[in-house]
Amino acid sequence: MILIDGRATAKQIKLEIIEEIKQITNKGGAPPHLAVVLVGNNSSSETYVTNKIKICKEVGVQCTLIHYENSVTESKLLATVNDLNKDENIDGFIIQLPLPKHISEQKIIESISYKKDVDGFHPINVGRMVIGLPCFVPATPKGIFELLKRYKIETIGKHCVILGRSNIVGKPIANLLAQKTYPGNCTLTICHNKTINIKKHCLKADIIVSAIGVPEFLKGDMVKYGAVVIDVGITRVYSMKNKSGFQLKGDVLFEEVAQKCSYISPVPGGVGPMTIISLIQNTLLARKKVIY
Amino acid sequence: MILIDGRATAKQIKLEIIEEIKQITNKGGAPPHLAVVLVGNNSSSETYVTNKIKICKEVGVQCTLIHYENSVTESKLLATVNDLNKDENIDGFIIQLPLPKHISEQKIIESISYKKDVDGFHPINVGRMVIGLPCFVPATPKGIFELLKRYKIETIGKHCVILGRSNIVGKPIANLLAQKTYPGNCTLTICHNKTINIKKHCLKADIIVSAIGVPEFLKGDMVKYGAVVIDVGITRVYSMKNKSGFQLKGDVLFEEVAQKCSYISPVPGGVGPMTIISLIQNTLLARKKVIY
Fold it and tell me: Catalytic residue positions of B?
């Protein structure tokens, strides 16, 4: 069994990004510039944003944080998006989700210029991804793709089972893995909460990508020998073991499943560390204007 | 076995459209107005366009044909699209594909206003469809959905196997049937030319949608008893039986497969007749501005 080490891979990509940015700035170019819009004081959101800013600094991406109170109006936020769309110094930006209930997330997402939409949530980027055109791919699927690539995991003709159909993980990874590319060319099955007998489907899979957020859902008896298992679930579970009082759990019961796998990504340390670095990669792509 | 009668269903929808348009015009409103842009003299394209115009007339949709020589330039075509985008008298329009090789189809498609894109090929409509937002759904998947609905075929929790991953049939129908809607909520498998052992996958399916364009590919021994089979393939095959010298063949070996099915759509007379009427439904939606 080979452990897919997301931390080491993210670290390697970080070095590559640093090198690329140096090449830009050595020629007198400005470094990539990401703006992050945060609304309110959701503690998870604050942690994510802090980490994003931290990694930006480490790799040499300029990062501007715009932080609003929870009470900010939708029109104020739309005006900010509009300003960022026009600002030539900003290569890409994200609105950290979730937003307070009085603001329509969809309306905000659709107001972002697709050319600066480094989260890849705008319908144009989603549509282009499905059609197979150059686009910003959302961070989590992009990170999974990097792991598959860098571990040289064969995908052509493999039967891949995706657990979950969210707009940010399940649907994009399903669409990407069915494309005529590498990674891709998989026979693709999407399972979800309406699927009858998920175990039956999982047992047939050469590759399982689990993104349902149910801790330790995937047990050893649900996986065939030699399968590749990518665990996208990250759930906080109360735990007396840690000082923090909680522990991060994936969708996969690692001790059981790992024994049967050819490759497995752990939680933590698998897909998680890849997501922020994927966002930074998208920001670099935006800076280099290679997509749009 | 119940035969899914696309001709009868399309006829019924036609009556419904006529009724709706009457309600609009009785109130003094203009009827829906579709423009069709045809380039060159591809005989299949000319037949499709002729049929579209004919059905428009029958239901009371105003239809304007813009026909260019094969030699028309890309910039001329882009200018036409731009005019149609702005023309307040046009509710929706389509560019009949394929286009001559000197014109980029993707560029033309992306220049169409998504609000008038009644073919549903623009990335915004594709993206919104995948996310689950109101949008123009392409004619063939839309027609299949109408058939499933009007024949009250259960889809929730069913395992649906799609053969083919084209942008106009396979991918959209896969994305739609995996959504949290009716028809939808299927466990969804996409098979294609890189799939190993398609038969194995088909034998597990409660519903098969075949859109690969290989005549009589799906044989009786590839389908389980009680399956629903939707045949999207339409291939012209040379035949001495018909005066025209050819015959239309679906992807399904009907004589064998029909015996095992709970429901089956034939070729011709299944999905085919639904596609034009679906385009007209989209034009009516555009006229009523219910999507955008």
Answer: 52, 96, 119
This model of the complex carries an ipTM of 0.96
* Torsion on CA atoms B164, B169, B172, B175, rounded to nearest 10: -40
Q: Report the top-level CATH class of A139-272.
A: alpha beta
φ/ψ (deg, to 5) at A125? -65, -40
Comparing CB atoms, the residue among B125, B187, B191 nearest residue A191 is B187
Coarse DSSP helix, strand, coil percentages of chain A, rounded to the nearest 5 percent: 40, 20, 40
Name the one residue in this structure whose structure tokens are 């759509």: B265
Is residue A161 classed exposed, middle or buried when 0-12, 13-18 and 19+ CB atoms within 10 A define those classes?
Answer: buried
CATH topology of domain A28-114: Rossmann fold (3.40.50)
CB atoms A195 and B157 under 8 Å:
yes
Q: What's the CA gap between A162 and B178, in Å, rounded?
A: 12
Task: Summarize pLDDT for A23-78 with one digit per residue, the tens.
Answer: 999 999 999 999 999 999 999 899 999 999 999 999 999 999 999 999 999 999 99
Q: Is B39 on the interface with A (CB under 8 A)?
A: no
- Domains in chain B: boundaries: 28-116, 139-272
Helix (H, G, I), strand (E, B) or coil at B35: strand
Report the alpha-carbon distance of residue B179 to residue A193 in Å, rounded: 11
Classify A213 in phi/psi space as left (phi over 0), alpha (psi -120 to 50) or beta: left
B96 secondary structure, DSSP code: P
B191 touches A at CB < 8 Å: yes
Q: Do domains A28-114 and A139-272 have the same CATH topology?
A: yes
Question: Beta B235-238 vs B246-249: how paired, if at all?
Answer: antiparallel
* Alpha-carbon distances, residue A92 vs A34, A65, A87, A95 (angstroms): 5, 12, 10, 11
Q: Which of A14, A62, A91, A96 is an active site residue?
A: A96
d(CA B57, nearest CA chain A) in Å? 33
Please state the pTM of the whole predicted model. Answer: 0.96
Q: Which three-class secondary structure state does DSSP give residue A3?
A: strand
